[in-house]
Task: structure prediction
Amino acid sequence: MVAIDGPSGAGKSTFAAQLVRALAERGRASVLVSTDDYATWDDPASWWPELVHDVIRAYERRHDYFYRPRVWVDGRPEVGPEVWMRWQPILIVEGVTSARRCTADRFTHRFWIDGPPAADRLRRTVQRDGEAERDHLARWQDFEEGWFAVDDTRARCRVLG
Result:
């Protein structure tokens, strides 16, 4: 299992997609799950037991599994339809809090991406998600800063940049 963590707008999703492609080119099958499928503005981190139950435990038992990513309807998150995943030998969990202390020992590899300075990362995420989300994204950056300071996430990861 691989965790790819770091602040929003750092390039985690891009790196994860490149990793999946590189593994496939080498004949190594993998599955990518994003913490964005669980996190919401009002619940940025406490959903972790759901991901452990739905994805990580099933992966560790070498079973196919399903999870229910959040979908946004009229600006509100709702639990979406089941997404079935076929078990593959590599599971990549990408996103903010993926290398969190409480389950870090379950991951074979933990990567951290710093990305550019906070103002540039905010600009990136606003460009990606839209100007209407700027306030949410700025508050999210505040959450991340506090989370990473308390969890000391970066210290247990291989820093990629």
The helical segments are 12-25, 48-60, 118-129, 134-151. The two ends are 21 Å apart (CA to CA). The longest helix spans residues 134-151.
